[in-house]
Amino acid sequence: MNEYQERYQQMIAVKGENFNTCFYCGCIATEFDYAPPKKYADFYIETRSEADFYQVPSCKECCTALKQEKSALVGERGDIAKRKIAKKYQKAIHVYQMWNEDEAQELDYNLQKCVQAGIELGRESSKRSQFPGFEFEVDGEKLKISNIPVKMITVFNKEFSDFRDALEFASLTYRVPKAKLKDLFSENNNSFEIAIESYHTKIDKNLSDKQLKKLCKTFSKAHKQNVDFVMRTVIYYMEQDNSLSIELALNKLYMERVSK
To answer: Quick check: helix, strand or coil at residue 154?
Structure first.
């Protein structure tokens, strides 16, 4: 038995609703995690390194996930547990973020049951990976770990505590497919604003390119011109004068090069 074991103080939830609750993820607590782990207690005491020396109510899954972690601070251990939960259940969380119950109802029976199960597991896993901890007492003193934050997600100044709600709102409000928006979110520094703007910029450019090709092809056929020449010239005109529309650029081409 470690001679420093008596130094650990048990964390006791202040509110009854948090009794027997895993401090890390909010599930039912069935055992204790130790911050720092008992096998590293000697090191932290002898080196006087920062350590909590708390006995933390925990579920079995979080205890197992933290078994090899050396961190001595409850806040850090909680962050590690949350990241591991998010990684372990990332597929279910993806289903939860991409689908809602109404959409699942439209599927055939077998697929519907699979998606509904994914939604439920993803909902629970997402909630666990964002659990903020709770106020607790240690030796009669009330405390709260401040470095387990609930990170708010913004969509043009509208705040959400759940990524799925933010994704649903952004997709419906700004007319971006959810799967595409989720990819763009991660590709653009986890910013919905940049993701939405980049999507619509690309859509507008694609529509403009399509219109350019269509009008240049029609012009080329009408005036017996090479279509590549027409397109290059029109693009050049528009780059030189950004007030020109495709139609005005084509008219300029006609007046300066074709009619002569």
So the answer is: strand
What's the structural domain count of the chain? Answer: 2
Question: Is the predicted pLDDT of residue 230 greater than 50, yes or no?
Answer: yes
Is residue 30 assigned to a domain?
A: yes
Q: Is residue 183 part of a domain?
A: no
pLDDT band (50, 70, 90) for residue 36 = very high
One-letter amino acid of 149: P
Task: Report d(CA 125, CA 151) in Å as an integer.
Answer: 16
Structural domain harbouring 128 = 5-147
* Residue 93 belongs to a domain: yes
In a domain, 210, yes or no: yes
What average pLDDT score do residues 148-168 get?
84
So what's the pLDDT on residue 242? 83
* Claim to verify: residue 36 and residue 117 sit in the same structural domain: yes
Q: Give the pTM.
A: 0.69
DSSP states along 94-148: HHHHH--HHHHHTS-HHHHHHHHHHHHHHHHHHHHHT-----EEETTEEE--TTS
Rounded CA gap, 204 and 188, in Å? 19
Instruction: State residue 149's pLDDT score.
Output: 52
Q: Are residues 119 and 221 in the same domain?
A: no
pLDDT at 145: 63
Rounded Cα distance, 19 and 115, in Å: 33
